[in-house]
Amino acid sequence: MKWILRILGVVVAVALLVVVIGEPLPKQHVVSRQATYHQPPEAIWQAIMDYEKFPTWIKGVARVEPFQSLNGYPGWTEIESNGMKIPLQVTEAVPPRRLVTRIADPNLPGTWTTEITPTSGGSVMRITEDGYVNNPLFRLMARFFFGYASTLDSYLKSLGEKFGEQVTLQN
Predict the structure, then answer these.
(1) The whole model's pTM is what?
(2) Which of 25, 30, 31, 75 could form a disulfide bond with 89, CB atoms 3.0-4.6 angstroms apart?
């Protein structure tokens, strides 16, 4: 019985620590990353708009289910390997230069603004995430363990691998 009470005490202490540290952290964050590719803007645009093929190159995306968007732009739900579902909707598209997507779930607010700029040897793609993390545990994890830009980093690297390129990420 003593061990159960000790374990319970540790669990309660950790939960309180998470709340004490995570609760005051800002819920809103804005983070940007960019990478350079040896591809023209049109090739990058084609890759990032062909959402049905995301499972073939985006790490962690198991499948994609399209849905009817109310604004005339595409919408789809990414089902991750862990079963989490993230509905995404395009809110602005200026091919092949600018794409804005938002999470189409009021409980998971956030947008990605993607800007593709041609260069002499290809393109630079910059993604800016304007995110909101309501849960104090997730804020704590994002702030101190995996970082706010981890999803951006993975996406940009995965796109490079799709093209057979290793990319260097920049802020």
Answers:
(1) 0.86
(2) 75
pLDDT in tens, 127-148: 999 998 888 877 777 778 888 8
- Cβ-contact 61, 55 below 8 angstroms: yes
Query: How far is the C-alpha of 140 from the C-alpha of 21, rounded, in Å?
Result: 7
Alpha-carbon gap, residue 158 to 23, rounded angstroms: 33
d(CA 116, CA 6): 55
SS3 content of the chain, % helix, strand, coil (to 5): 35, 35, 30
Structure tokens at 100: 């804005």
Hey, is 83 helix, strand or coil?
Answer: coil
Q: Cα–Cα distance between 116 and 126 in angstroms, integer?
A: 7
Q: Is 28 exposed, middle or buried (0-12, 13-18, 19+ CB in 10 A)?
A: exposed
Angle at 35 between CA 29 and CA 38, to 5 degrees: 160
Model confidence over 153-170: pLDDT tens digits? Answer: 999 999 999 999 999 999
Query: What residue ranges of the chain have pLDDT lower than 50?
Result: none
